[in-house]
Amino acid sequence: MQLPIVKPAPIVTTHTEAFRDLFENQCQFRHFQNYLTGLMVLPNKSLANISRCILESADKTNLSRFFSQAPWSKEELTEQRIKYLLTQTVSHRLSAQESYLLLDDTLCEHVGSLFEYVDRHYNHSNHSYPLSHNLVTSHYLSGAVRFPVDLQIYRRYEEITRWSEFVKKYFPDLEIPKQKKERQKLHKLVDQTLLKDPEFQDLHNQFQTKIALAVKLIEQAKNRNLPFTTVLMDSWYLAPDIVATLKEHQLDWVSLLKKNRKLEVNSFVLRDEGGQPITLTGPHIKVEELVPLIPSNAYRKVKLEDKSYWCFTRSLRVPGLGKVRLVISFENPELTGTYAVLVTNRTDWSAKKILATYLQRWPIETFYQDSKGHLGLDKYRMRSTEAIQKHWCLVFVAYSLLHLACLPSSLIPGRGKIPSRPIKTIGEVCRQQGQKLIEDLILLAHDQLQQGQSAAEVFSRLFAKQRKEVPG
């Protein structure tokens, strides 16, 4: 049995009035407050458990209708959230030249296939294909200020087009292989025939790659007037379409580069330890083929805070990207073990500047950890995409409000500088909200006892919903 929640979390009460006009009536607004509170403090984030634990909440059915039928807009809520955060963080943010938009994607894994748009997506961390939703997200970072901006749900081509279904329709005798390479061969064999079907053609036109979704997120961030000048991304998103979009908006970028990417040999000169040019054959050379050829004296030590790196830097050309600045970085002077390859359009930046900038990308990873570990980003049980997307939207709201409590209240004493990092974690603030709700519960029980109610009566009222809804 969990402790009942007698009012919304304090941080929810403090900030949600800014969103009051987005909801049709007080009932919807209270659902909004209650769900945010449940996400922040309850270990079980299901609709049933939130309804069971919040004393004055409606039952699960009403809360479910809040997601599936209530006419509030997740787009309008996202728009208002970002405007509110920018207003609330004016004194904490750095200049646009020191602010970043981060791009990445994450999996929300599930057991069972009843969720709309759920499919098997590749998990690069363990090389598996779990049933999941794949979210492409954007994140804003400016000094200590960091919050999610928006998301797009990625749907695999075969899922969105119902490809297997159409293959069986037109090629009933063909067996669909499970191996990726064999399926790709089958695509080449059958897709031209399938595209003659108007229904399949319509589904085909709805497909968008992760690159196309990332372009949308960049466009949305610019349309919302987020103040930033640099985009940080991993190698998956380093594609000509994204680079062209960034150039159109006059944005800089820093990214990881895959080690099998090709470099244009005639765009740079590599010298040996004696200073003599090294002959490189072919019009192109892969990064992983270049690294063994680089002499050790071509690396320079770069120190960032308390950590040192050994870096090789060159300006050169990469097919599809144009002229870029390349940094190959090892973590030891022996130049052994794994290495990172960074690339940026800023050919005037030093290795230290490029490294320091790319390391600003880490907060999007901690966002995924916090939003899943503390706020239930992947713990939904709704089946329709509309309801699921509203859940994600409210997780973004919960994280954003909690983050406001993570920011320092003043400048660094004696220095007059804006702190570069939050002073609290999301987990700490969640625990503080839970502790405050326990205080509110104790005070309510005390007041009722003072009014003459017996302990049994107070207990019965406070736990009535949980006792009723938990099977005996």
Structural overview:
With 472 residues, the protein is α+β, with helices and mostly antiparallel strands. It is 42% helix and 17% strand. Among the domains are: 1-92 and 374-472, no CATH class; 257-361, no CATH class. It contains 18 helices and twelve strands. Strands 1, 2, 3, 4, 5, 6, 9, 10, 11 and 12 form a ten-stranded mixed beta sheet that branches. The protein has a two-stranded antiparallel sheet with strand order 7-8.
Largest sheet: 10 strands, mixed
Average pLDDT confidence is 93
Q: So what's the overall shape?
A: globular
Helix and strand composition category: alpha+beta
Helix content: 40-55%
What order do the SSEs take from the amino end to the carboxyl end, as H and E? Answer: HHHHHEEEEHHHHHEHEEEHEEEEHHHHHH
Global Rg: 26 Å
Quickly count the helices. Answer: 18
- Number-wise, the strands total 12
Features:
single chain; 472 residues; alpha+beta; 10-stranded mixed beta sheet; two-stranded antiparallel sheet; 18 helices; 17% strand
Short summary:
This protein has 472 residues and is an alpha+beta fold. The chain has helices spanning 10-15, 26-41, 47-53, 60-68, 74-88, 157-160, 163-170, 180-194, 198-206, 210-223, 240-248, 287-290, 351-358, 363-373, 385-406, 426-450, 455-462, 464-469, and strands at 100-109, 119-120, 131-142, 145-154, 230-233, 252-256, 262-264, 284-286, 300-304, 307-318, 322-330, 340-344. The chain contains 18 helices and twelve strands.
Topology:
Layout: H1 10-15, H2 26-41, H3 47-53, H4 60-68, H5 74-88, E1 100-109, E2 119-120, E3 131-142, E4 145-154, H6 157-160, H7 163-170, H8 180-194, H9 198-206, H10 210-223, E5 230-233, H11 240-248, E6 252-256, E7 262-264, E8 284-286, H12 287-290, E9 300-304, E10 307-318, E11 322-330, E12 340-344, H13 351-358, H14 363-373, H15 385-406, H16 426-450, H17 455-462, H18 464-469
Helix pairs in contact: 2-3, 2-15, 5-15, 10-11
